[in-house]
Write a structure and sequence with these properties.
The chain has 20 helices and 2 strands. By secondary structure, the protein is mostly helical.
Length: 435
């Protein structure tokens, strides 16, 4: 058994024992109540599942195994000569609960290089689709097709003990994470580079190799991909992509089925697709105003026109957060350190000044602050990456790290098939005594 599996198994055994005791001694303790507003309102705030790898605080934002993003920028290993954390380190942390050494992260980078395998039939699936198919659709189909080689389903059919479910889940998750940048780059080059594919390098870490296969080897872009792939990984279990992956995996559908489903959730404009919507909205503003250097008044009017036409301001608001998203702040920090003279970055910063007071003035949004999607497009465009329809695929490659770490935990802990109770409005009216 390799070192990562061994460490995981050790931690799984001790947490498994603790959970058994918690359920035995406190199984009937109430942790939450549900109101009718929550039943109709997307279950906001309802505590209803266990997800070990990260937890979201409305004020302070995401904590990965207890660590904030600024702490992880200090503590996670970086590439030689780099200063941004490597997402391999985040995967190690989420899976084991422990910070990895540089040597452990290098081992993981090598594992991902060795395990990457994009079969011809997956390439054929992508190529068979119409050229204007959205990249997220191709990405989801590609992931699903990779399941043909899945280890869990094979071992399950051979008669796998439930105590061993986590082991082939780990193997599938590692193979899938290793292959995702290759699948995503294949889609990118198929759609936007006349099908000219760029072979991977055998000296690069996971995120840098992805950047390389996307056609940009500049040091700054490799660093951007490392921080981007680290901060988008996980956002506790209730967000739509994590929860979908978790739900599907709870049926013992393997990680290929589960992640493909999670990616479908991420493709919605209220979720991950907002990163493409933000830049599209900004490009439309530039076109409408005829300038890349809009005044404060022009920006303010554009925001108000958007709201007055019954649309949302993309990249702003959040179901849980009530302060600027630390992932927005991390990306702003990257821009401050690395980017000079970008009109688009300036616009994003001006929006940060004007959107929150405007949303407050309109009085509907509970959180007027920027979320993770408000900044990423301006960074990507700065490095020549203008194909904004593709941006959510980047989010999806990163999100796999968090949700697949959760799948390994969920199968290790033997978490049950998810099956909450639904009610009808008729039931509610009866409950309220209105019949
Ligand atoms: N622009 C305009 N209106 C908004 C916005 C916004 N950015 N955010 C919330 N509202 C409205 C919302 O539509 C709702 O209106 P109504 O009562 O007419 O239905 C009202 O404010 C109350 O909504 P909240 O309770 O504040 O937000 P909720 O938890 O329902 O939704 C989001 C959260 C993220 C879906 C919402 O803020 C939104 O639509 N934001 C824009 C899209 C976006 O950036 N999504 C990305 C989220 C991050 N991610 O990557 O997943
Ligand atoms: C996420 O990263 O999943 C989004 O911020 C949405 C959420 O947490 O609900």
């Amino acid at each position: 058994m390799n070192r990562l599996k061994e460490k995981f198994k050790e931690n799984l055994t001790s947490l498994g024992k603790e959970i058994k005791d918690i359920i035995k001694n406190n199984g009937d303790t109430i942790v939450d109540q549900v109101s009718i507003k929550q039943l109709y309102g997307g279950m906001r705030g309802l505590k209803s599942m266990v997800y070990e790898t990260s937890q979201l605080d409305p004020i302070h934002g995401i904590r990965f195994r207890g660590y904030s993003i600024p702490e992880l920028r200090e503590k996670l290993p970086t590439a030689v000569g780099g200063e941004e954390p490597l997402p391999e380190g985040m995967f190690w942390l989420l899976l084991t609960g422990e910070l990895p050494s540089k040597e452990e992260v290098d081992w993981l980078s090598a594992q991902f290089r060795e395990r990457a395998n994009l079969p011809q039939y997956t390439k054929d699936v992508i190529k068979a689709m119409p050229k204007d198919t959205h990249p997220m659709e191709l990405f989801s189909m590609g992931i699903l097709s990779l399941g043909n080689d899945g280890i869990f389903r094979k071992r399950y059919n051979e008669g796998l003990s439930k105590y061993d479910y986590w082991d082939p889940t780990y193997e599938d998750a590692m193979n899938l994470i290793a292959t995702l940048p290759h699948l995503a780059a294949f889609i990118f080059n198929h759609k936007y580079n006349d099908g000219k594919q760029i072979p991977p390098r055998d000296d690069l870490d996971w995120a840098a190799n992805f950047a390389h296969m996307l056609g940009n080897d500049s040091k700054e872009f490799l660093e951007l991909m490392r921080i981007y792939m680290t901060i988008h990984t996980d956002h506790e279990g209730g967000n739509a992509s994590a929860h979908t992956t978790h739900l599907v995996n709870s049926t013992l559908s393997d990680v290929y089925y589960s992640l493909s489903a999670g990616i479908n959730a991420l493709a919605g404009p209220l979720h991950g697709l907002a990163n493409q919507e933000v830049i599209k909205w900004i490009f439309e503003m530039i076109e409408k105003l005829g300038t890349e250097d809009p005044t404060d008044e022009q920006i303010l009017k554009y925001i108000e026109d958007t709201l007055d036409s019954g649309r949302v301001v993309p990249g702003y608001g959040h179901a849980v957060l009530r302060r600027p998203d630390p992932r927005f702040t991390a990306q702003k920090g990257f821009a401050e350190r690395n980017i000079k003279d970008s009109n688009l970055v300036e616009i994003v910063w001006k929006l940060f000044e004007h959107v929150p007071p405007t949303l407050k003035k309109y009085g509907k949004a509970k959180n007027p602050w920027p979320n993770v999607d408000a900044h990423s497009g301006a960074l990507l465009v700065h490095y020549g990456f203008r194909q904004y329809e593709y941006y959510t695929v980047l989010f999806g490659v990163s999100r796999a790290i968090g949700v697949l770490a959760d799948s390994i935990w969920a199968r290790g802990l033997g978490l049950a098939l998810e099956r909450p109770k639904s009610v009808t409005t008729e039931w509610i009216k009866k409950y309220l005594g209105q019949y």
